[in-house]
Design a protein that fits this description.
alpha+beta
Protein backbone atom coordinates (compact mmCIF):
# COMPACT_ATOMS: atom_id res chain seq x y z
CA UNK A 1 0.00 0.00 0.00
CA UNK A 2 1.26 3.47 -0.86
CA UNK A 3 1.69 6.24 1.65
CA UNK A 4 -1.43 8.49 1.59
CA UNK A 5 0.80 11.53 2.18
CA UNK A 6 2.70 10.91 -1.07
CA UNK A 7 1.50 12.58 -4.24
CA UNK A 8 2.52 11.01 -7.55
CA UNK A 9 2.24 13.28 -10.54
CA UNK A 10 2.55 11.58 -13.90
CA UNK A 11 2.71 13.79 -16.98
CA UNK A 12 1.93 12.17 -20.31
CA UNK A 13 4.87 12.08 -22.68
CA UNK A 14 4.19 13.93 -25.92
CA UNK A 15 5.40 11.79 -28.80
CA UNK A 16 4.84 12.17 -32.52
CA UNK A 17 6.00 9.74 -35.21
CA UNK A 18 7.10 11.19 -38.55
CA UNK A 19 7.59 9.40 -41.87
CA UNK A 20 7.52 6.07 -40.02
CA UNK A 21 11.22 6.74 -39.43
CA UNK A 22 11.65 8.86 -36.31
CA UNK A 23 9.81 10.21 -33.30
CA UNK A 24 9.88 13.62 -31.68
CA UNK A 25 9.54 14.02 -27.94
CA UNK A 26 9.16 17.19 -25.92
CA UNK A 27 11.61 17.36 -23.05
CA UNK A 28 10.64 18.67 -19.63
CA UNK A 29 12.62 21.91 -20.15
CA UNK A 30 10.81 22.69 -23.42
CA UNK A 31 13.21 21.51 -26.13
CA UNK A 32 12.33 18.85 -28.69
CA UNK A 33 14.49 15.82 -29.46
CA UNK A 34 14.12 13.43 -32.38
CA UNK A 35 14.93 9.74 -31.96
CA UNK A 36 15.35 6.98 -34.51
CA UNK A 37 13.24 3.85 -34.20
CA UNK A 38 15.89 2.19 -32.01
CA UNK A 39 15.73 5.10 -29.56
CA UNK A 40 19.02 6.82 -30.40
CA UNK A 41 18.80 10.64 -30.28
CA UNK A 42 19.29 12.50 -33.57
CA UNK A 43 18.55 16.23 -33.34
CA UNK A 44 17.67 18.67 -30.54
CA UNK A 45 15.76 21.86 -31.40
CA UNK A 46 13.88 24.68 -29.74
CA UNK A 47 10.63 24.00 -31.65
CA UNK A 48 8.99 20.83 -32.91
CA UNK A 49 8.80 22.16 -36.47
CA UNK A 50 12.55 22.86 -36.59
CA UNK A 51 13.29 19.46 -35.09
CA UNK A 52 11.24 17.69 -37.76
CA UNK A 53 12.77 19.75 -40.58
CA UNK A 54 16.35 19.25 -39.39
CA UNK A 55 15.85 15.54 -38.76
CA UNK A 56 14.40 15.00 -42.24
CA UNK A 57 17.37 16.83 -43.76
CA UNK A 58 19.86 14.88 -41.65
CA UNK A 59 18.34 11.48 -42.43
CA UNK A 60 18.22 12.25 -46.17
CA UNK A 61 21.83 13.45 -46.13
CA UNK A 62 22.84 10.36 -44.17
CA UNK A 63 21.14 8.14 -46.75
CA UNK A 64 22.41 9.99 -49.85
CA UNK A 65 25.79 10.99 -48.45
CA UNK A 66 26.91 14.30 -47.02
CA UNK A 67 29.27 15.08 -49.86
CA UNK A 68 32.52 16.96 -49.37
CA UNK A 69 31.80 19.23 -46.43
CA UNK A 70 35.21 19.45 -44.82
CA UNK A 71 37.28 22.51 -45.73
CA UNK A 72 40.92 22.71 -44.75
CA UNK A 73 42.50 25.99 -43.76
CA UNK A 74 46.11 26.80 -43.02
CA UNK A 75 47.37 29.94 -41.41
CA UNK A 76 50.24 31.38 -39.46
CA UNK A 77 50.29 33.92 -36.69
CA UNK A 78 53.00 36.49 -36.78
CA UNK A 79 54.29 38.25 -33.71
CA UNK A 80 54.27 37.32 -30.10
CA UNK A 81 51.07 36.19 -28.43
Amino acid sequence: MTDPNTINIIKPEITNVYDETFTVKKQRWGTFVSYDLEGAPIITSMTEELCVEATRWYLKAKQDGFGETATKYESTVGGKL
